[in-house]
Amino acid sequence: MYKNFKLIDRVVFGRGSFYQLGDILEAQRVGKDSSVVFLVDNVFENSELIDRLPINKNDKLILADTSSEPTTYYVDELTKMVKDYEIGMSVSVVGIGGGTTMDLSKAVSLMLTNEGSSADYQGWDLIKNPAVYHLGIPTLSGTGAEVSRTTVLTGPVKKLGINSDYTVFNQIVLDPDLIENAPINQRFYTAMDTYVHNVEALTGTFINAFARAYGEKSYDLCKEIFLTDIDRREADEKLMMASMFGGLSIAYSQVGVCHALSYGLSYVLKTRHGVSNCIVFDQLEEFYKDYVVEFKEIVDRNGFEIPKGVTKGCTDQDFEKMIDISMLLVPLWENALGKDWKLIITRDKLRELFQKM
Ligand code: NAD
Ligand code: ZN
Fold this sequence. Notes:
By secondary structure, the chain is an alpha/beta fold. The protein has helices spanning 21-26, 48-51, 72-85, 99-111, 184-203, 209-227, 232-251, 257-269, 273-281, 285-301, 316-327, 330-337, 347-356; strands spanning 10-13, 34-41, 60-64, 90-97, 123-124, 134-138, 152-154, 159-163, 171-174. 46% of the residues lie in helices and 12% in strands.
């Protein structure tokens, strides 16, 4: 069976397109019971971006705590906050921020219409009811969360997405002005997420013409951005496209070894996704050969340093947990290494890899 891939309904792209938000939301503001919840990364507290939000009388602004990656606990808390406030209202959710806020807003919009805890839905196609209308506005580029059908959550027992067609945003607004002032390190780590998405998609066994078309373009854009003397403004515009295309590529293929290990690493060490990927990918020459050499060149050329020795203080229990989390990600291993992946990926092999990081 081929994937019947759900795309985002609508996309706006361009500098200053953020100003269109009020117009875009008009279509959702039907009747006096309609309301919009703006879930905004708290890094923007007291910023001009907040001043420019089209907030009406019934609406609510929530500043999302993004000091750590999204947890099911926090999603449940936010959902309760919205439900308590918006009783009887027809709600839409607007998420503004990096991948963490994209995922929080996707998850909250799903949990407003699905009972129980978000932890109950970590997995593939477990969501029963469509989400409320949700719109995403990225302020960092690289995760592809703006186009993906997942929201990655750390739950009580696993780090796993809520993967469903209903997770996909109804609308995204891509305004390169919004990513301009991101901290330089964070911009780089998040951008490298896209680079890794492409490598894993293009070298995986699930690859097909659809995923290749997007993945190759995104990979070329990444190289142009980080291996040529491109102007920063042009680079930001291209990075937004690279992120989106990288997301579309993996949506019709899959990620691989780096992501499987990175999930385990960040579950235990609480390192953010972008930096975790970089720490892991740096050690994966055995799997991704020339791409790892190229990645190191990108890191050097742009004057960054990838953290090393991060697992030095880890206990036996920590390594076991990292291995458990990684092993759960069967589709990633199958994509990277084929159906017989278990012949290569043993618990000892994973421990050896984690110990190198
Ligand atoms: P992030 O959203 O975690 O943000 C990192 C830091 O940058 C935060 O402190 C945030 O406040 C700050 N920040 C964001 N935008 C800023 C801006 N414009 N200016 C200044 N500071 C800014 O980072 P990310 O790398 O975009 O997202 C990582 C998250 O995305 C992880 O939780 C990961 O699991 C998730 N993810 C999701 C998918 C998906 O398909 N759903 C894919 C990959 C990663
Ligand atoms: Zn990723």
